[in-house]
Amino acid sequence: MDTSLKNLAQSQLIKAATDFIQKKLQGRQPVIGIVLGSGLGKLADEITDPIAVPYGEVEGFPVSTAIGHKGNFIVGNLGGKCVIAMQGRIHYYEGYEMATVTLPIRVMIALGIKYLFVSNAAGGTNLSYHVGDLMIIKDHINMLPNPLIGPNLDEFGPRFPDMTRPYDPALIRKAEALAEKEGIALQKGVYVAVSGPCYETPAEYRYFRAIGADAVGMSTVPEVIIARHSNIPVFGMSVITDVAHATDDEDYVTDGEAIVKAADAAADKMTLLFTKLIAEL
Amino acid sequence: MDPRIEKIVGAVSTVRDLLEGRKPIVGIVLGSGLGKLADAIQNPVIIPYRLIPGFPLSTATGHKGNYIVGSLGGKTVIAMQGRIHYYEGYGMESVVLPIRVMIRLGIKSLFVSNAAGGVSFGLHVGDLMIIKDHINLLPNPLIGPNMDDEGTRFPDMTRPYDPELIKLAMQLAGEMGVELKQGVYLGDTGPSYETPAEYKFYRTIGADAVGMSTIPEVIVARHAGIPVFGMSVITNEAHDDYADDYENDGEDVVKAANAAADKMTGLFIKMIEKF
Questions:
Q1: Pairing of strands B209-211, B109-118
Q2: What is the phi/psi pair of residue A200, to 5°?
Q3: pLDDT tens, position by position, A182-210
């Protein structure tokens, strides 16, 4: 297809999905978007007076196929604010194009969110990290295709968006202050995004550590780039569900089920922190 | 016939018909904000990309979309006023099509230029950097069945940038009093600029400057055995830490490139005179 036609089609898809969801919201105006990572979907249970919109009902939306992911928008109250949470994200490794992976983010932006909170389950490449740690994402390294490749959607942002501060410094400071008050220990590091779906080899873990990454995962960065394109402040958090040093052991086995369990254990702390942070916005 | 070759041959035939017998021997690719070198080309024939079958249109800020064929430094040159970028959404085949066409038109060397961000702390806004080598983080433009008429399946990349041309540039710059840096250019897709963590990553692996172009063109030229000279205009500086009010935007990049473009134009002309 001609690139300008593709662009038009994408704009129309975003608009149609936004209009559809808006009708379901009965006048609610979400101000904060939240993306819930693998096993972190339980934050959605804390949202009061919720309206659920299954992705399957929204034209152009794919159905998320990943373990530990459902496929719904949940709109309701959290921390006294109207939020829209993605219970289940779309991953590049599922075989979707970047335009599809980031479609729900563009829709939340079109719905008028003022902040985006992203979360994920990640492998710790930093040797001092432990399973169950919470890490504030202070920066990222993108090894996935850039979601802005293609003609620029000018109504969403500039051709060459700045990435000097992908994660909002003021939100990071607030989160650190709250965590200290609540007695929650936090790491702070750099997230590297790779396509997956195979996990990293020990050599790849060493490579990522050498280039400055503290955690590795298969998501999040495309969503953050799309949010920053539209100048939306982002707060990001990784739950460490796997650690680098273990992968060199001869009897070490990585499995998806264990990762979902580890994420579950840390999800409560993250839910509390997100709720308190949202209450302060 | 291979449809890719058909496209190249069709474009070559259209361009050749418009050249009124001119035979360009040097190809030049002008980067963001560096298009003014084209104004120095005498007796020019201007061929808009839109007149050439199969050519995509350049949509980037600071880029026009024309071939300019004429005299520079006493030689017939063909300059690309505006290149095709991968981030615009085109396949690599389209990105390098204008280079393949210049090769078929008979160029004997290729000059490439770009606006790049400084990764090394030793580079400052307005610096000119000779590209002595590169690191490719874009898709390789030679992926696919090899076009044997253009070059070999596994082209050597030991000397992507011609050592003789680099020596010549250093010597001429010395005579002209133009200060030149030398470094490694890293090409990534963009279009978002690099994060601080990505800058650090690139520095760790040996890059001095980063940009969103050039390397696909260089690989295709080297595939065909064409010597390449490359130059980056540094339009952005690396920081270890970023002040709260630090801003980074495309307009500034174009301005900084403009200021250095004159020096680069002068150097390119002197080099071409020596051919």
A1: antiparallel
A2: -75, 145
A3: 999 999 999 999 999 999 999 999 999 99
Average pLDDT rounded to a whole number, residues A11-24: 96
Per-residue pLDDT tens digits for A88-111: 899 999 999 999 999 999 999 999
In angstroms, the CA A132 to CA B233 distance is 46
Question: Across the interface, which of A6, A148, A190 has its CB nearest the CB of B192?
Answer: A148
Nearest to B31 by CA among B220, B238, B217, B167: B217
- In 3D space, the residue among A34, A98, A67 whose CA is nearest the CA of residue A235 turns out to be A34
Q: Which residues of A touch B243 (CB under 8 A)?
A: none
Q: Taking CB atoms and an 8 Å limit, are B192 and A225 in contact across chains? A: yes
Kindly provide the ipTM of the predicted complex, given to two decimals: 0.90
Cβ contact, residue pair A149, B247, below 8 Å: no
Give the sign of the dihedral formed by CA B94, CA B76, CA B107, CA B233. negative
Instruction: Give the DSSP H or E segment for A126.
Output: none
Integer Rg of chain B from CA? 18
List the structure tokens of B202: 């690139």
CA A273, CA A140: separation in Å to the nearest integer? 21
